[in-house]
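User: New here, please read:
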Amino acid sequence: MSSQVRLSLLPSARCLFDEPVQVKVAGLRSRQVVTVRARSTDEKGVVFSSSATYRADGSGEIDLDRHPSLGGRYVGVEPMGLLWSMRADTPHRFLHKNKALQPHVVKFSVHEDEGEGRSLAEATNERVLMGDGVRRVPVKEGNIQGVLFTPPGDGPFPAVLDLCTLMSEKRACLLANKGFVVLAVGVYTDKPDNVKEIHLDRFEEAKDFLQRQPQVGSKGVGVIAQSKGADVALSLAAFVPGVEAVVWINGCSANVALPLYYKKHQILSPLLFNFDKVIPTESGAAICKYGVKDPLAEENKGSLVPIERAEGRFLFVASEDDLNWDSKGYADEMMERLKRHGKENFESVYYPRAGHLLEPPYGPHCPSSRHGVFSFPVLWGGEPKAHAAAEVHLWKKIQEFFRTHLSCDATQTEAKL
């Protein structure tokens, strides 16, 4: 490495996972062309990496906030491009960063010339999921199995139930950094093949547990969910009182795959899948979008979630390039149905070139990976740059939506204490 060249990460080399970092290089020759790289290893040992070519200015400096990439994984001014453009070293991999206690570590480096040049400088970025003072408590009580995250301080804080299709702590603890008490629970608590039915009572228990927490000040709870978890969130809002606000992300308007029970009775039949309509591709990953049966067909109407019964607010989030299923079509249908019932308790946001997996921002875009339920690789859709921008926008939108519709009452918190 060169002693004169310095790679800086500002304002600090340690930050929250969902915070941008400014990458700057100094000490280069005037107009010198270099390659800047990022590299990380996820919890399953998969290596993700990216690179882009930059030309230093007259002072021998590069600032990714101002200077354009000339080539590599992206071109143009993209301050966080090295993060969202990272790809796995093996195909069809998703960045697994689900454990909240360990930071996501990214090594940035600067190299001579383009490609495999000598390393001139490097710096390590620790991207933390749990900020200072956030508490993490595993919960195993009754039928609840999950993890509770609470912000620093006594509150009152709004409460959010994070329904993960497959258990992950990332989104829940990042929301706790923003001032929400969040309980993350998995829709599937066993291998998907072993699950034959879903009971809404388990999620009602989780909601009630959240509302009993002493720091919680909202009279009801918010629910956030994506994919299969999103239709469970709709059902909670429709059948269980106390759900004040639902963020539905790239889900279905019907109860997908498994019968839904509540108070020992089946309340919704499953919307099934036609595997003959799955489209294989040369990449080895399949397009599943057309395999879901039509929820509006007469024989499937018993699977439609009656969201017109819900008293809370909805935020419908749909990616228009979702290759998992027709999220935009389902969102359109639900909003039309609510309007027909005289309801105005909803808003929506659509992202034209984003794919199915909308995550908290600044992780790598995942074009394809092994499907958590079907166990074969699938295409998720989305153009990396547009998808990354959608994640940044949506993350702020989620927080604004919950703050607006989960008002906190300090006297309620005092009563619990």
Remarks:
- The domain at 6-128 is CATH 2.60.40.2240 (Immunoglobulin-like).
- The chain is about 20% helix and 35% strand.
- The chain has a mean pLDDT of 94.
